[in-house]
User: Fold these one by one.
Assistant:
Number 1:
Amino acid sequence: MVTALVGAASSGLSLTSPVLLSLVWESCELPLKISQSVAIMEVLHAMLGIVRSPVAITATQVASRLWILWGIVNLTPESTTTSVVTIGGVLNLSLVTLLTAWCLSEIIRYGFFALKEVGSQPGFMVWLRYSGFLVLYPLGVSSELAMVWLALPVIRLKGLWSIALPNPINFALSYDVVCVLAVAAYLPGFPHLFTYMLKQRKKVLGGGGGGGSAKKSV
């Protein structure tokens, strides 16, 4: 993604350019699919007690990313990898903001755990681990919802992943309705996850928000 952005910048392309967004998707598609798909192992590790992460929280996070990747972005690249959603004329949500939020979240999280494994927990990394989400979570969730918004017209028009009547099993399914219901699940889901991280932040950093030694890894 960095290579695509640098190349686009040198060519004078803006972050909202369809050409830039397409280049970003082309450069990130394979590694993104691999890295996000193997994240299923995080849920398994939590279930087996290999790590102390809450199973429900971990499963929710992994499931939402897998759905956005495979059931939204990869399903409708003609819209999700070429368009943006502008909020208030200021914030442009796109594939770039989605990947930025996802990537920075994982760099901070895995960097924190890597340093912990070698017995080092510098204050700045502890602070990043329990403060970065204040910006990255809202950015990530809003970008995920933007992807759904861009994909819905295409899904509805083409009937993607939908089952129409009549058919031998007499069963109908409208995937666009499923997407809307999934988005509705974000309403209680995001506050729950965000509140959980706020509690962890207070537990580790205290009321002052300064760096310190992590008492519990999540």
Number 2:
Amino acid sequence: MGIKDAVDATKTEMTRWQTIKADPLFMFSRALTKAYGLFVKMAYPFASVGKGLAMHRTSRLFRPHARQIKLGNDVSIMKDTWLNIAPSPDDEIKLLIDDRCLIGLRTTITVKNHVHLESDVVLADSVVIADHTRAFDDINVPIYGQGTSSGGTIRIETGCWIGHCSAVICNRGNLVIGRNSVIGANCVVTHSIPPYSIVMGNPARIVKHFDPVRGAWTVGPAGKVEAEIAAQ
């Protein structure tokens, strides 16, 4: 980043904060969220929790589940989110949320095996992250009575953006979304995505990818892009 870019970024941030400070109700709500985050940090038995937790009071987290959750520094968890850990007989860490992650409004993260959000990941509003699904193999038993699938694991690498109403679902194996990738709104991701990818659609397809070897973006039909990535 050049000096001009750094100056422009600083001006943009200053303007943003001036706008925020001009709205007293927003500042009050923000203070309540910070205060509730401090309460949760002290009252819930997290495996570990960093400084600066901001958690809205409407967020759902069953207190005993906190022992299987690690939160980094400056994590923000917005209104009406749900952090769910499937019942298990052990205290193994199931959910890791690293520094400066943002969990948007109405987002659900449900974990049976392992989900890891690396630093600076943003989940926009109404996102679903699930490392398992409902079991449905027995046609003679109601779905709710069949429990859950064995599932897999999910890792979303540093700097990714998961768009509005997207779902990242892993029913088996290891699903990895590579660093600095963008998952577009309303995507359904069920397979791994390489770093520096732009993904759209249902089912999710790569429509643009940065090739660090060439030092350039590859643009074209999703199948062509994925074939080029696979061939490297």
